[in-house]
Hints:
Elements: H1 2-9, H2 14-34, H3 44-67, H4 74-87, H5 95-106, H6 112-132, E1 135-136, E2 139-140, H7 146-149, H8 151-190, H9 195-212, E3 216-224, E4 227-234, E5 265-272, E6 275-281, H10 287-318, H11 328-341, E7 348-355, H12 357-364, H13 366-384, E8 389-394, E9 397-402, H14 408-423, E10 426-427, E11 432-433, E12 436-443, H15 450-466, E13 472-474
Parallel strand pairs: 12-13
Antiparallel strand pairs: 1-2, 3-4, 3-6, 5-6, 7-9, 7-12, 8-9, 10-11
Helix pairs in contact: 2-3, 2-5, 3-4, 3-5, 4-5, 4-6, 5-6, 5-8, 8-9, 8-10, 9-10, 12-13, 13-14
Amino acid sequence: MTVTRIRQLLPAGNLDRTRLAATALGCLGLAAALAQVGNEYRSPGWHRASFLAIVLVMAAVVLTHLRGRAPWWDAVTLPVLITVGGAGLRDPLATIGLSFAVALGLSLYGPTGLWVLRTVGTFAAIPVAVAISPISLGRVISWHSPTVLGMLPMLALMSAMMRGIYLALRHQERVSARDAVLAQTGSRMISLTEVTAVRRLGVEAANAIVALTPGVAMVILRRDERGLFVKAVAGLPESLLDRTVPESVVTGPAGLEELAPGFRHWRVETFSADLHLLVGGRNPVAEDVVAAFRTVSNQVVLGEAACVSHAELDHRAHHDHLTGLPTRDKFFRELDAATAAGTPGSVALLLIDLDDFKAVNDTYGHAAGDELLVELAGRIVRAGGPGSVAARLGGDEFALLLTGLGGPGDADATARTVSAAIVAPARLTDATVTVGASIGIAAATAGCTAGELTRHADVAMYAAKAHGKNRVERYDPERLQPA
């Protein structure tokens, strides 16, 4: 149980655990050095300054660990503090321990240039401290003696090893973090059915990769009638979106210097003639980073294809295979929603039954009948106008849902337009034919359900057929009653 609790208190990542261990060991070494303050050739004031300097070094090590980064001024202040602290020790050679304690922990932070500067300054403090206090345990030691200078290469090697460990662990964590981003993106993309959502998720993933790898950028180029243009970016201003770029950037990305100043190194990945991935960096971009952006782009391409397939399957499942109009189930879902949300009089339903359609089938065959149904379906859609929903309910029966009506006359006018459109001669492959339509109109009233509205329109439609066909009849509860 105790071991489990200790593990829970430890940082999760290997790098953070290594930093914690290095900080703890360094602080132990610095704390041990405090007991050695008291060089007999230095004044009490120097002893106090030495003690304070070592404490400040320890505070800098701890603060760096807590903040997770090393400030630039450490490269200046730490060598001075180590020199003052080491010169006050009983054995000035123990300055080696101070320098190593600092190098042990701070090699795990900051850019390489700052690490080199800090390491050189920290190790230079050893001969300087010995030069200030050249007597060690009763014997004189020269600052340039093999005893002093001979330790510096070994300390430098140990510092370089710690730096190598740091770089390896940081690379491992970044790779793991990128893999997590890619895995999460792929998992989330499976459930998406909209192309825009897929592309938005792809940009989010690309931005996450940029955040894990500072100094890189991504550009997605797509082609349309304008030519190549910027479709998506990560690590660059969004003001670049929709800008056209010359075709030459695909073969020679030097043309991107104006588009992305400071990014001199580019890699181009071509997915198709209309889609290109460009990965740029202020320095040469590592292959694993390019591979991560390539994976995201592949995920987006596959996600887009899945969305298109889903849309096609959804359309086939909910639309009539012949006319392309919504099926009965889809239409009545629309009708339910419209009657629930619409105000009385703003929603109307037209049920349309073709007259004499059977004669066309019998005379010219079912192929001609199918051709006529396709033609009349298009006429009904056009006559219904924007905002209307047409459907083929089966056989030669259609429906038209009207919403946003201003008054009862609107539905009547649309019904007459539909009737005139249907009765107009239709030129088919083998003949020109004419059919009519019996149309029933029912307007939604307060509290009217989709089922009631359908029954009312059905009653009106059969009344129109009973009164001579090719007519428009409005449902009137005082005159027409459901059977």
